[in-house]
Design brief:
Elements: E1 2-3, H1 6-28, E2 33-39, H2 43-59, E3 62-68, H3 74-86, E4 92-95, H4 105-109, H5 123-131, H6 139-150, E5 159-163, H7 170-179, E6 183-187, H8 194-198, E7 203-206, E8 224-227, E9 231-233, E10 236-238, H9 243-246, E11 252-253, H10 260-281
Parallel strand pairs: 1-11, 2-3, 2-4, 5-6, 5-7, 7-8, 8-11
Antiparallel strand pairs: 9-10
Helix pairs in contact: 1-10, 2-10, 6-7, 6-10
Catalytic activity: (6R)-5,10-methylene-5,6,7,8-tetrahydrofolate + NADP(+) = (6R)-5,10-methenyltetrahydrofolate + NADPH; (6R)-5,10-methenyltetrahydrofolate + H2O = (6R)-10-formyltetrahydrofolate + H(+)
GO molecular function, one term: methenyltetrahydrofolate cyclohydrolase activity
InterPro entries: Aminoacid_DH-like_N_sf (IPR046346), NAD(P)-bd_dom_sf (IPR036291), THF_DH/CycHdrlase (IPR000672), THF_DH/CycHdrlase_cat_dom (IPR020630), THF_DH/CycHdrlase_NAD-bd_dom (IPR020631)
C-alpha cells in the first residue's frame, strides 16, 4: 500500500501559483479576489472554508467571506449573489454546498455568473465540460485526476466506480474519467448494491459524504482509491473510506485529511487565476 502524497504535489503546484500571482500583481497592480458564499454552519462547509482561508493566506490571494444565517431566504441569497456578480473587484465566486434543503440548489448555482464560477457549478460551464469545450474544471474532480496521474495511474480501460452523484464531485469526475477512456460506474442513493460494483472496481472515487461508507469487505486487493469525502465526527475530519482497514488492501490511497482536500484548494486558486486572466483579456 502506498499513500498518495497530495500535500507534496500540492506544495509544488502552489509554488508555481505563487509565481503566477506575483507576475499578475506586477502586470495589473492587483491580485485575484475570491469570494466565498456560506449559508449556515454545516460542519463540512466550516472545515472547507477554514482550509480555503489558509490557502489564500499562503498564496497572497484576496479573500472575502459572505456569511449568511441559515434563515436567509432563497430570494435574498440570489439577490446577494447578483451584487457579487456585478462587483468588478471580485474575480471568482464559490458557494458552499450543501444549502438549506428548501433551496433550489440548481437555481442558486445558476445565479453565479459563469464568468466568476470558480468551481464550475453553473449549468453553462458544466455543459461545456460535458461537451468537451474549454471551461474551468470543478476543483475537486480536477484535483483527483491530477493526483492520480501524478502517481502514474492509467485510467484507460480501467473499471472505475464513483460513489456519490453530486454536482460538485460525482457527476463531473465521472465525465473527466470518460475523457480519460475509463469505464465508469456511478453509484448513488438508489443504487441497490454499492458493494457489488466496488468489488469489481480497479479504481474507486468516494464522494458520497458519508463517513466510513467504503469498508474493507467492499474492495478487492490492489484497488486504487481517491477519497473526496469530508465528514466531521466528534470534531475530527474523516473521509468516506474506512482508511485504517481499507488501506490494507489498496495499492494506492489518499488519506483524509491531507489528501484530495489539499489538491482541491490548489485547483481552486488555479481556476481563480484562469478566470482573472479571462476577465482582464475581455
Amino acid at each position: 500500500m502506498s499513500i498518495i502524497d497530495c500535500k507534496e504535489l500540492s506544495r509544488k503546484i502552489r509554488l508555481s501559483l505563487i509565481d503566477k500571482i506575483q507576475k499578475i500583481n506586477d502586470q495589473y497592480g492587483e491580485v485575484p479576489h475570491l469570494e466565498i458564499v456560506q449559508v449556515g454552519d454545516h460542519p463540512s462547509s466550516v472545515s472547507y472554508v477554514k482550509s480555503i482561508v489558509k490557502t489564500c493566506d499562503e498564496l497572497s490571494v484576496n479573500l472575502h467571506i459572505s456569511k449568511f444565517e441559515s434563515d436567509i431566504t432563497e430570494k435574498e441569497l440570489i439577490s446577494e449573489l447578483d451584487k457579487l456578480n456585478k462587483e468588478d473587484s471580485i474575480h471568482g465566486i464559490i458557494i458552499q454546498f450543501p444549502l438549506p434543503n428548501e433551496f433550489d440548489q440548481n437555481k442558486i448555482a445558476n445565479s453565479i455568473s459563469p464568468l466568476k464560477d470558480v468551481d464550475c457549478v453553473h449549468s453553462e460551464n458544466l455543459g461545456k465540460l460535458f461537451m468537451g469545450e474549454p471551461s474551468v474544471v470543478p476543483c475537486t474532480p480536477k484535483g483527483i485526476i491530477r493526483a492520480l496521474k501524478d502517481s502514474n495511474v492509467d485510467f484507460c480501460g480501467k473499471e472505475v466506480v464513483v460513489v456519490g452523484s453530486g454536482r460538485t464531485v460525482g457527476k463531473p469526475v465521472s465525465q473527466l474519467l470518460l475523457i480519460e477512456n475509463a469505464t465508469v460506474t456511478l453509484c448513488h442513493l438508489h443504487t441497490k448494491s454499492v458493494k457489488k460494483h466496488t468489488l469489481e472496481a480497479d479504481i474507486i472515487i468516494a464522494a458520497a459524504g458519508k463517513a466510513g461508507l467504503i469498508s474493507e469487505d467492499m474492495v478487492k486487493d490492489g484497488v486504487i482509491i481517491a477519497d473526496a469525502g469530508i465528514n466531521v465526527i466528534d470534531g475530527k475530519v474523516c473521509g468516506d473510506v474506512d482508511f485504517d482497514n481499507v488501506s490494507k488492501k489498496a495499492s494506492l490511497i489518499t488519506p483524509v485529511p491531507g489528501g484530495v482536500g489539499a489538491m482541491t484548494n490548489s485547483m481552486l486558486i488555479e481556476n481563480l487565476i484562469e478566470l482573472f486572466e479571462k476577465i482582464k483579456l475581455k
